[in-house]
């Protein structure tokens, strides 16, 4: 066996899902004892690459992948997660896979318990062998000591702080014999700052023992602090592999965002809007939203009347929490002032009464009644909020099918919703057309302020363009204030007047669409140091 | 060839109708055929089908609001049923049907007044009880169907005690010879038996049709249909279909679920009184225990799911289910004398169809 330099070498990996190429020839190479950062925006292909490395069924049930994987210089055929484990590849999950009612030691040794035979097991089989708790505790303590976690191994996991759970998860992985490569998938996302620091130290310790680490993260400062080298992906393409000592934060930020600002929308109409910092439509002060996975932790922001404001940021940083909290879908706190009036955040439907409409990012979950007709979907909110599309019979009011149908057909024409008729169930439409139905419902409310969340997620390029053009047109012609929340920086930069970047539940900064890629990259990665946020 | 068959309009129509309904409908026709062959009197049997349709219809209708508001199949309609019985008993205790002043206007009018009084009182009790029932169901989102079943059974048990201790005095209600407690079966002969069934009643040969009963049933269907097209009704349906969607439109989901549960309970109360005036007795104590299952089975046979139910499901399902019950008894007794096969059939079909429908629904659990 020739001596190899790399623990893992993935060459020219390509993968397509149903004709959609998500990885286009990606290389990845990691040396023993090296901490290698894998970076890229959401959807850059990081998770697909990791799924391939772990032989996840989702890869093999969709036609496998192209390219080669070598482990310790030997070609490896990883077609199941168990194979990956046999090769010594471990993963520290983002959401903890721990059993609360078990002790620390039991959680670390689960699935690999140390057992001794007894009478019953000799008769029935090895599943009934006695657990050797002492040996298991010994192993657990050793693993915990390696990563420097001061905790008794007999404590139950339930009720431990999040940071501890993460460490137990790591301890479980390194306790596996023959572990060569450990993947950390955004391990610091759920940790407090001090915990995160300890984790980075632990990673260093693990790496010093010769275990290679793949570190997936969005935080540039962490990469600079611990990683030895890094690979950047963008849109499924391999961008660069660099040694950390040869690069800088600004470099990495630029690599991640890339120069790809294309105008998605042609500016047709003249822009004769007058925007001023005094004329504010919505004012947020110390605004917090408790939305699982998209927590907003205190934002001050003024949205000017008549502007298109983009809200960007990476997934899980809190940008989606902003509109959901205002609409009352998730518990929110702080002061929200709409046109000078304070919004009662505890009262459902309050935002609607202030002429704010919302198109949800979760089209099928929140945005639509999938089994109801397009007509129902379009008129529903306006019917409930503004009592439209009702006809009076005696003292009672009933659904007015005629006017609702007329309006629905109007909207179908206006927004070019491709359907057989307005009575077709909304769930049968394609993603783009469903999005237009959601937009139609919001517009039926005749709002002054429109929140659109991930307007182009999961729809094709043609529909994307149409939706963005429509938003621009609404803004220019009716003076509607539009707030677009999107993970796609490109679309924000193509239509927004200003772009607020949210990072870790706070406002990182407000950028102009033509600011440099480096600035956007820095802001999104939480490395933005100037601007309003002071260091804590 | 096969392609043209599968593409044909008839096939598509049948596919939409659904396999369980095709089987049940075929079984219904088979029983009808059996009745004719065994010479058991097809016309009277059909009359029987129709009156059972009217009797059980409103009870099945009670499933519609609860399903539409997202609570699911309300196996606890026994709550509404007991309040219905309570209202009915009070009306008898007050002896409204024999009130001289009302009888003076017209005996039929007095009977109708007694019936209406029973319904109004029952509705009041049902609305109050349904409110608290709804509050409870809002606390157990995701496992409503289990909870409704337990609540239904518990309510029956609780009312079994109440029937023995409530201070009813009327001789038609309590056990004779200075006994205590309500009788097992309370006869409505002296009060409002046939109060609406006898309206416009007609006979064709040996077939009796209770026109008034059917009209009243259809009238209740119309009320529910209209409600479903009102602002509140539409909001309620949206809550059942997608609670997050409804919240995004500013609708208080808990309030709508409360409305649906109350409406369902009230309909059950009206349903049992309508049922009893046709039957001629109030069946007390454990008798209503399985009503929830019979009603749920009926709408499910009609094509409803635990998430969606329409008036059409009620009309079709009740007719098929009760039709099989009505025809099954004489046919089974003729073919297998001395067995209680029809009772077994009822349990098999009602529990079987409930199991089938629950197995068909994917996922489950509420989204909140």
Molecular structure report:
The complex is a heterodimer of chains A (536) and B (368). Chain A is α/β, with parallel strands linked by helices and 536 residues long. Chain A is built from 19 helices and 24 strands. In chain A, strand 1 (8-17) and strand 2 form a beta hairpin. Mean pLDDT of chain A is 84; it is low at 531-536. Chain B is mainly alpha-helical. Chain B has a single domain, classed as Orthogonal Bundle (ABC transporter involved in vitamin B12 uptake, BtuC). Helices cover 69% and strands 3% of the residues of chain B. Chain B is built from 16 helices and four strands. Chain B has helices at residues 2-7, 9-17, 19-37, 42-61, 63-68, 78-93, 100-105, 107-139, 144-165, 211-228, 231-241, 243-248, 253-279, 291-301, 311-335, 341-360; strands spanning 185-187, 202-204, 207-209, 281-283. In chain B, strands 1-4 form a two-stranded antiparallel ribbon. A two-stranded antiparallel sheet of chain B has the order 2-3. In chain B, a hairpin with a 2-residue loop joins strand 2 (202-204) and strand 3. In chain B, helix 3 (19-37) packs parallel to helix 15 (311-335) and helix 11 crosses helix 13 (253-279). The radius of gyration of chain B is 21 Å and the shape is globular. Residues 362-368 of chain B have low confidence and may be disordered. Chains A and B meet through helix 12, helix 13, helix 14 and strand 20 of A and helix 11 and helix 12 of B.
């Amino acid at each position: 066996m020739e001596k190899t330099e790399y623990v893992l070498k993935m060459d020219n990996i390509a993968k397509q899902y149903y004709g959609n190429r998500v990885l286009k020839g990606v290389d990845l190479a990691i040396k023993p004892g090296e901490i290698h950062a894998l970076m890229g925006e959401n959807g850059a292909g990081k998770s697909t690459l990791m799924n391939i490395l772990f032989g996840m069924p989702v890869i093999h049930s969709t036609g496998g992948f192209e390219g080669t994987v070598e482990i310790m210089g030997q070609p490896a055929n990883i077609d199941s997660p168990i194979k990956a484990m046999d090769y010594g590849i471990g993963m520290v999950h983002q959401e903890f896979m721990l059993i609360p009612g078990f002790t620390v030691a039991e959680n670390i040794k689960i699935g690999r318990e140390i057992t001794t035979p007894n009478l019953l097991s000799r008769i029935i089989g090895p599943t009934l062998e006695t657990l050797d708790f002492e040996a298991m505790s010994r192993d657990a303590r050793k693993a915990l000591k390696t990563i420097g976690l001061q905790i008794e191994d007999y404590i139950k996991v339930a009720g431990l702080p999040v940071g501890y759970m993460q460490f137990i998860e790591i301890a479980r992985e390194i306790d596996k014999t023959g572990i060569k490569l450990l993947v950390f998938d955004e391990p610091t996302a759920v940790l407090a700052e001090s915990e995160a620091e300890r984790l980075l130290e632990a990673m260093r310790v693990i790496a010093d023992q010769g275990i290679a680490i793949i570190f997936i993260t969005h935080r540039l400062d962490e990469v600079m602090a611990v990683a030895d080298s890094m690979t950047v992906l963008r849109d499924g393409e391999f961008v660069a592999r660099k040694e950390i000592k040869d690069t800088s934060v600004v470099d990495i930020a630029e690599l991640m965002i890339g120069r790809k600002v294309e105008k998605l929308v042609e500016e047709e109409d003249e822009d004769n809007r007058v925007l001023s910092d005094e004329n504010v439509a919505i004012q947020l002060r110390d605004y917090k939203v408790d939305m699982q996975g998209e927590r907003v932790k205190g934002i001050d922001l003024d949205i000017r009347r008549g502007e298109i404001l983009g809200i960007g940021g990476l997934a899980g940083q809190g940008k989606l929490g902003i509109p959901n909290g205002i609409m009352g879908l998730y518990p929110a706190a702080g002061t929200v002032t709409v046109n000078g009036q304070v919004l009662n955040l505890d009262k459902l439907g309050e935002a609607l009464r202030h002429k704010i409409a919302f198109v949800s990012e979760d089209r099928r979950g929140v945005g639509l009644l999938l089994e109801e007709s397009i007509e129902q979907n379009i008129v529903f909110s306006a019917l409930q909020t503004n009592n439209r599309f009702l006809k009076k019979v005696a003292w009672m009011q009933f659904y007015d099918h005629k006017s609702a149908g007329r309006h629905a057909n109007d909207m179908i024409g206006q927004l070019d919703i491709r359907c057989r008729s307005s009575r077709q169930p909304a769930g049968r439409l394609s993603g783009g057309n469903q999005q237009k139905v959601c937009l139609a419902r919001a517009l039926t409310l005749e709002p002054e302020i429109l929140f659109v969340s991930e307007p182009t997620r999961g729809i094709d390029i043609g529909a994307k363009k149409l939706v963005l053009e429509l938003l621009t047109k609404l803004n220019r012609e009716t003076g509607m204030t539009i707030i677009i929340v999107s993970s796609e920086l490109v679309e924000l930069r193509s239509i927004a007047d200003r772009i607020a970047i949210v990072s870790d539940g706070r406002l990182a900064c407000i950028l102009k669409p033509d600011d440099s890629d480096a600035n956007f990259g820095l802001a999104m990665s939480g490395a933005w140091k100037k601007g309003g946020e002071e260091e804590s | 060839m096969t392609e043209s068959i599968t593409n044909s309009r008839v096939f598509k129509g049948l596919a939409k109708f659904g396999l369980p309904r095709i089987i049940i409908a075929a079984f219904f026709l088979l029983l009808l055929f059996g009745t004719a062959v065994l010479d058991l009197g097809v016309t009277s049997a059909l009359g029987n089908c129709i009156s059972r349709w009217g009797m059980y219809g409103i009870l099945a209708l009670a499933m519609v609001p609860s399903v539409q508001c997202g609570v699911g199949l309300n196996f606890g309609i026994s709550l509404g049923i007991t309040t219905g019985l309570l209202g009915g008993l009070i009306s008898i205790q007050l002896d409204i049907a024999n009130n001289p002043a009302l009888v003076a206007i017209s005996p039929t009018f007095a009977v109708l007044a007694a019936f209406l009084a029973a319904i109004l009182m029952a509705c009041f009790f049902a609305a109050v009880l349904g409110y608290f029932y709804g509050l409870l169901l809002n606390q157990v989102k995701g496992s409503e169907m289990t909870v409704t079943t337990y609540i239904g059974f518990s309510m029956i048990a609780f009312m079994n005690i109440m029937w023995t201790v409530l201070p009813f005095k009327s001789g038609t209600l309590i056990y004779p010879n200075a006994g205590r407690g309500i009788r097992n079966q309370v006869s409505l002969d002296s009060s409002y038996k046939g109060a609406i069934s006898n309206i416009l009643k007609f006979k064709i040969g040996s077939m009796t049709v209770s026109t008034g009963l059917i009209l009243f049933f259809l009238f209740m269907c119309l009320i529910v249909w209209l409600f479903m097209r009102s602002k509140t009704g539409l909001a309620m349906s949206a809550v059942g279909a997608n609670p997050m969607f409804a919240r995004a439109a500013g609708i208080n989901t808990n309030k709508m679920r409360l409305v649906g549960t109350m409406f369902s309970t009230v309909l059950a109360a009206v349903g049992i009184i309508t049922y009893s005036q046709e039957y001629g007795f109030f069946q007390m104590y454990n008798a209503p225990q399985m009503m929830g299952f019979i009603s749920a089975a009926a709408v499910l046979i009609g094509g409803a799911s635990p998430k969606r139910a329409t008036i059409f499901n009620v009309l079709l399902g009740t007719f098929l289910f009760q039709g099989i019950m009505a025809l099954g008894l004489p046919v089974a007794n003729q073919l297998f004398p001395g067995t209680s096969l029809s009772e077994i059939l009822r349990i098999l079909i009602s529990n079987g169809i409930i199991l089938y429908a629950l197995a068909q629904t994917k996922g489950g659990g509420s989204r909140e």
